[in-house]
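Listing S7. Sequence submitted for prediction.
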Amino acid sequence: MKEVRVGLIGYGGIVRKVLAELPRVAGRGIGVTGVLVRPGRCDAARQALGGGVPLYETLDSFVAAGPTIVAECAGHTAVDDYGEAILRAGIDLMVVSIGSLSDRDRHERLVRAAREGGAHLILPSGAIGAVDALSAARIAGLTSVTYRSRKPPAAWMGTPAESLCDLGNLSSATTFYQGDARDAARLYPKNANVAATVALAGIGFDDTQVELCADPTTDCNIHEIEAEGVAGSFRIELKGNPIPENLKTSMLTALSVARGLANMTATTVI
């Protein structure tokens, strides 16, 4: 079994959770080579991560440490700044900021870089389930896919939702966005990664319908998928607890990254 050397980009809640859980769920033959952070952010990263993991401020030094797979956990800008170079270096890239792929040009550039480097562009399931069923149903043909996201109002602070409804004084669930997955991922990059995942697994960004809702009656992130096609239909609802440090991100997102990395050395993969 090949050795898997993991590099991570970012030092937020997702990376912290991955570092905490990966040793517990991964088998032998997997290790962390280090974490890539922005220049000048090593002190903040060291304080957040608690030490014990090498930190790098340049892509060259990060790549020189020898990762065989890198998990991006730092947002769209990190995908732009590092993604293509990592893939061209022959290193697999797991993109957590899947909403970044709603930009056609960015997506095409990453795919081209992966082909040139002989690497894989890996998209984790993140905060949602049924991605396997959705991608399987796509083979026979899907006729409609709808994704609905319901989160506490605080999770939508700092987004365009602030100008569409009074987030601080809602008394009932309020849907503030209805449209396609491409615009949802563009307008709400830190909240709509699941919309992008559903779109890529199913019928694409332009044909996947999305509804985003602020709900003061819930303290969790609720995701719902409805799909119909030749193979049948299904509906799934998942209630995910957020990462305490970031209400916009479901804990399951970080756990799906840890599971995806652990699967790379697992004897049985599911």
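Caption to Listing S7: primary sequence and predicted structure tokens for the chain studied. Residues 151 and 221 are 5 Å apart (CA to CA). The chain has a mean pLDDT of 93.
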